[in-house]
Amino acid sequence: MAAQVISGKEIAAQIRAELKSEVEKLAARGIQPGLAVILVGDDPASHSYVKGKEKAAVELNFHSEVHRLPESVSEQDVLALIGKLNEDPKIHGILVQLPLPRHISEKAVIQAIDPEKDVDGFHPQNVGNMYIGLPAFLPCTPHGVIQMLKRSGVEIAGKHAVVIGRSNIVGKPMAQLLLSENATVTICHSRTPDLAAMTKQADILVAAVGRAGTVRADMVKPGAVVIDVGVNRVDGKLVGDCLFDELSEVAGMITPVPGGVGPMTITMLMYNTVESAKRH
Ligand code: GUN
């Protein structure tokens, strides 16, 4: 039987409708959520992601600022801009699009953001709080995946979740959030010797590798829930890390690319910005 397709697009639209009414409630109190995005350099993928974020913010009636800086900008100038945004009462969320050019320290930039405005959830204070279960901004992509699972009726507690990928942005926080939901969690990565032996045990499989064709049908347990976080361009076409067509014949549920995790990431950024505005 063909797998049920989990539409990130539809779930994202649902959450955005909920956010719209939150934004109206804030407006009645004279508060408009404000999001500032900093984009350095000319990477076309980053420009396209930032456009999506800007569009979503405008559609939700946020105050939206995008600071597009040249590749040659100094770290000091980026840190100075973050300092200004930290102090700006119109701004509730600050996001610096990654990756940054090599001459700018990602660590220094992330640590310069006021943790109360760190809507990406990348600041060590938010990461630490998330790990010990204190209130924190949750990183947008893994948080979006949890929302997709819950809103599709997937029971997480007691399941074996296997995450492929160990990045700070997706893999590591994904594993932690699944653990917080009482899954048994395995993290696989490039040095895992027999990936298929691990992925075949997954009730919930999250692929966050960034390489097309990583997950084939013979690596998935029949009926498993497969979440594809990958975004890869192959022959001009966007594809995930999973071979969607063949996995559809084996999995119980699967997310498409595009229209899966991508719209959720942007939506959870809007969610975090609304949360931040509510707190201020
Ligand atoms: N680059 C790729 N994904 C992300 C993300 O979630 N946040 C930021 N800031 N940069 C990214």
Total helical segments: 10
The spatial strand order of the largest sheet comes to 1-11-8-7-5-6
Based on CA atoms alone, the radius of gyration comes out at: 19 Å
- How far apart are the termini? 49 Å
Order of helices and strands: EHEHEHEHHHEHEHEEEEHEH
CATH superfamily of the largest domain: NAD(P)-binding Rossmann-like Domain
Query: How much is the average pLDDT?
Result: 98
Q: Determine the strand fraction and express it as a percent band.
A: 15-25%
Shape: globular
| Gross CATH architecture of the largest domain | 3-Layer(aba) Sandwich
Distinct small molecules bound, one entry per kind: guanine
Count of folded domains: 2
CATH fold assignment of the largest domain: Rossmann fold
Unreliable stretches: none
Q: Estimate the helix proportion, in percent.
A: 40-55%
Structural class: alpha/beta
Number of strands: 11
Summarize the main sheet: 6 strands, parallel
